[in-house]
Design a protein that fits this description.
elongated; 3-stranded antiparallel beta sheet; mainly alpha; 383 residues
């Protein structure tokens, strides 16, 4: 049998054009028919589900045109967002909420555990248009879901999104009642109003509990991300120090002063890391704004060792140039420079005191002799 497969040069050119558009960062103004067909929003899926549901209640047991359309949209939606792990569909209006999970490809740094993107999808305005109080509550839950998706990962993200899903489901279930405005009596309306008020009060309490858990999880997550960024910055700092040391050794410029200089820079970075770890051990000693984003927190953490190394550098130079002196210390050893550098990296306040002493030695502000301030317990400190 002859093969019916044909080559499509136009499709190949389209693939290459999309590739180069992505490389060069160009936006495509017109989407192809294939791209347009693969994109299905959750609102389109909800509408198809509602129409299919109406066909079923009308007696189309074997499925009608909307059954086929719903299955097609559902397939497209899963291809883009992943499997639906939880869902709730309203009966009397085209409204719904769903949780999806899409696995991500394995990365070299995380081979043993595969990450996934978890998203909350909700279309509720059709059902809650006549109940503004419920609409406000739903929007709060949806906002919390967006925050949890961007800030949290793994178990804490799943926990918060599961709680958000349950909260949105309770609200939709409460208002998803059969339209009976014509048959409603004042007594029935009053009962429904009291029921809605009680439900909203309970929903407020549950929202506060979920929000509190999200805040605690966000703070802990930010600390972990900051610490990982700090380790990345320390690794890069170590590579730079090692490269400088190897260069000096290979060019026969290695001296004792080079050893003291590099040791001071390394101990300043180490002091900054130990300082952060010490403050993380206390409940209120280290606080981060976790809602700035994981990338921003990671970048801030990667700068911390460099800050400690930068603070240690001018103090080392001040000691070598004798602008800063500690009592009667003569011919200081490398351990002396390393200790002072570690203290400077560990405490920015003490580093500022030392640098103020250098500035006072250069330009005194009074006729009285200026004594260099030293940290408590430093070698040569006056007693």
């Amino acid at each position: 049998m002859a093969s019916t497969a044909t080559h499509h040069p136009g499709r190949a050119r389209s693939w290459w054009s999309r590739y180069w558009d992505a490389v060069l960062g160009r936006e495509r103004s017109v989407a192809t028919a294939e791209e347009f067909d693969t994109s299905v929003s959750f609102a389109e899926l909800v509408w198809a589900h509602y129409q299919r549901q109406e066909e079923v209640y009308a007696g189309a047991i074997n499925g009608g045109p909307w059954e086929i359309e719903y299955r097609r949209r559902l397939k497209r939606f899963k291809q883009e967002h992943g499997d639906i792990i939880k869902d709730y569909w309203c009966r009397y209006q085209a409204s719904a909420v769903a949780l999806t999970a899409k696995p991500l490809p394995r990365r070299p740094g995380n081979l043993w555990r595969r990450d996934e993107i978890v998203r909350l999808h909700s279309v509720t305005d059709w059902r809650t248009a006549a109940v503004p109080e419920v609409t406000v509550s739903l929007h709060r839950w949806q906002t919390l879901a967006i925050k949890a998706t961007e800030i949290l990962r793994h178990a804490t993200e799943h926990i918060v999104l599961e709680q958000v899903f349950e909260g949105v489901t309770r609200l939709l279930a409460c208002v998803d009642q059969e339209p009976a405005a014509a048959r409603a009596t004042p007594k029935a309306t009053d009962v429904a109003t009291r029921k809605l008020t009680a439900m909203l009060a309970k929903d407020e309490e549950q929202f506060r509990q979920t929000e509190s858990y999200y805040a605690r999880a966000g703070e802990n997550s930010a600390r972990i991300v900051y610490f990982r960024g700090m380790l990345n910055g320390a690794g890069l700092c170590a590579i730079v120090i090692a490269a400088v040391a190897c260069t000096l050794w290979a060019t026969d410029h290695w001296r004792a002063s080079s050893r003291d200089f590099l040791a001071s820079v390394a101990l300043g970075a180490l002091g900054a890391i130990v300082s952060v770890m010490t403050r993380m051990a206390s409940s209120n000693g280290f606080n981060l704004d976790y809602e700035v984003g994981r990338k921003s927190v990671r970048r801030l953490g990667s700068l911390r060792p460099w800050i400690g190394a930068t603070l240690a550098l001018p103090i080392y130079l001040a000691l070598k140039s004798e602008l800063l002196q500690f009592g009667t210390v003569k011919n200081p050893s490398p351990y002396f420079y390393a200790t002072i550098a570690f203290v400077a990296g560990f405490s920015e306040r003490r580093a500022k005191v030392l640098l103020d002493g250098v500035g006072g030695g250069i330009a005194p502000t009074s006729n009285e002799p200026v004594a260099a301030s030293v940290p408590d317990g430093a070698a040569g400190a006056p007693k």
